[in-house]
Amino acid sequence: MNMKIYEVVKLLPKCKKLMDDCEYDSYPAKKNLCEQISNNIFKHRDPKMLIICGQAMEFLSKLVSYSHNILMEAGCKYLYYWIYYKLKSNNNNMYTNSLYHEVTQVYGEQLIGKKFCDKYKEEINDEQMFKLSFLNELYKCHNAKITIRENNTDEVICKTLNDILDEYKTKFEEFVSAKETTENVKSSSVSVPTYQNNIKAAIITTIIVMLLIFLLIFFIFKFASNSSYFQQKIQKMRNKWKNIDSVCSILKQSEINRNISWNNRYNISYNID
């Protein structure tokens, strides 16, 4: 299980003591490996880097002797923290990541035959190291305050420690604020296209509805204005059909009269005979 950052802080004093007991190892195998690492990173043999590399490898040797996974994880993270500040004193802290990866990889593969600190490398970054440094300073100040209270030491020291705490607190708050601002900007940039799409859809829908309403009003007005015209047409059609019916009635009546006349003639002729 990966440790939380504040859990690592509690083990930093033990890791620091372990590192303080390490000295530059002039063992030929490690020395040759460090020279290779120096050439890979700096393109030349750097004496200061060789000392840092040798002490780091000695630290890893001591760390391997511990069977506790907790100390192993804390040690891997502490090593990155330690390398950073060692290189920073020489203005070479930009090589922290490269040196850390080279030392742990070379030590693991060529000296003990297995990967070392690999599962923690993805978690180690500048943000984690900033938090670790901040919490470590708080932890040291807290312990110092306890010592001061127990020994009734001068209150001036307590004030100095409070000033240090305030300084780190301000830096940490600024860091968190800057990070939140960056995340908010990213979130806003993602939501803007969606908002713009919604506006476009609303505008298009409004235009379509307005066109439909306009067409409806237009047809209603047109039919209303031409209603008399349609009524006249209908009336003419009715009159036409009435005229046709009248003609048919006249023709029918004429046919009936003709038949009656014919029958009368026939009857008269028959009677005479």
Secondary structure topology:
Elements: H1 5-20, H2 28-42, H3 47-64, H4 69-88, H5 96-112, H6 118-121, H7 126-151, H8 155-225, H9 227-272
Protein name: Variable surface protein
Transmembrane segments: 201-224
Keywords: Membrane, Transmembrane, Transmembrane helix
Question: Could you characterize the architecture of this molecule?
Answer:
With 273 residues, the chain is an all-alpha fold. It has a domain at 5-124. It has helices spanning 5-20, 28-42, 47-64, 69-88, 96-112, 118-121, 126-151, 155-225, 227-272. Helix 2 (28-42) crosses helix 3 and helix 2 (28-42) packs antiparallel against helix 5 (96-112). Mean pLDDT is 72; it is low at 268-273.
Provide the descriptors you would attach to this structure in a database record.
273 residues, transmembrane helix, single chain, 0% strand, 9 helices, membrane, Variable surface protein, elongated, mainly alpha, transmembrane
Order of H and E elements: HHHHHHHHH
Helix content: over 70%
Query: What's the number of extended β-strand segments?
Result: 0
Count of helical regions: 9
How big a fraction of the residues is strand?
Answer: under 5%
Low-confidence stretches: 268-273
- The end-to-end span amounts to 142 Å
Largest sheet: none
Keywords: Membrane, Transmembrane, Transmembrane helix
Protein name: Variable surface protein
Organism: Plasmodium gonderi
Transmembrane segments: 201-224
Quick summary:
By secondary structure, the chain is mostly helical. The chain is 85% helix and 0% strand.
